[in-house]
Amino acid sequence: MADSSKAAQAATGRSRGIRATGRRRKGPTRRRRALTITVCALVSCVLLGGAGLGYVYFKLNGNLKGVDINAALGKNRPQDNDDGSMDILVMGSDSRAGANGSYGTDEGNARSDTAMIVHVYKGHKKASVVSIPRDTMVQRPDCTKDGKNIPGQRKAMFNTAFEVGGPACAVKTVESMSGIRMDHFVEVDFTGFKKLIDALGGVDITTTKPIHDNKSHLNLEPGKHTLNGEDALGLVRTRHGVPGGDGSDLGRIQLQQTFIKALMKQVKSIGLLSNPAKLYGIADTATKAITTDTDLNSVNALMGLAKQMGGIGSDNIDMVTLPVTYDPKNPSRVLPLEKQSKQVWDALGQDRDIPKEAIKDSAGDKGGTDSYVK
Length: 374
Fold this sequence. Notes:
alpha+beta
């Protein structure tokens, strides 16, 4: 996404309680955030490990799905700071269509079950990740979907942007909130996430307290676990399975952030380059699991992005939740803390670290569920 200089960089690969018990793959894994960052790294690993396999290239390329965000949003967007940094909106969708039907009734539209802005700093040696609670009340801008105008709303839940206007509306809403232009967009749905975790052989975690949630089909006693796709999905989605939690999206986000660190460490240590067959299977699953903006909608572009992210490890990622407070009119919703949120967005817009004081008084990093996993 963004302007042609960044697109070209991505396409050519130029620079531009759980305890992670580690076991996963190597290669050009650029470790970043979540459900999807691992995907791009896995794809590039296959390609770098199997150079010259034309069939593999075209097969994986044919798996990818793209959305032309640039065409949908036009020129009325935040200025593109071409300073070597990069901002990527990563989303997990809660569509109940097709294979996702077991998670609820398909009502025709998907919402963003998970949303994170991944800011990769100039030099590509570290990153910050800002999770946006799905229940955050925001001013949703006017959007267009399938040629039809979608009127904005002064006070709407953040995840309705994706529901009513698709990826382009989600990007537009984030840009409106932050004043930061998103360079790329990546989406993973429930089924794609599960299949990817299963293809990787699961993710090792250690729970310090029991986690039980019938709604997300999750039952974990304290101790070490290798989560399969179903259980991993249950963990990153649970809102009610953590005693003492508030049942909101805030506690779930803490679990997601901890799981991501475990996922990244395992991906780093799996050593897939020594097993081409498994590597291809994972890349095939990964490329089927994601939808990206059209600037990333090719194996070459994903490989280029993965190369750029190769120097970022889990210890070089700062994960925070957008500073919020509970809505006094509806405690199941949250409101952005205006001053602190501005500090977060200003820091990323200027390619600076997020100041600790920005999240000091936020409800977003006080859910306490991170004590259940380490």
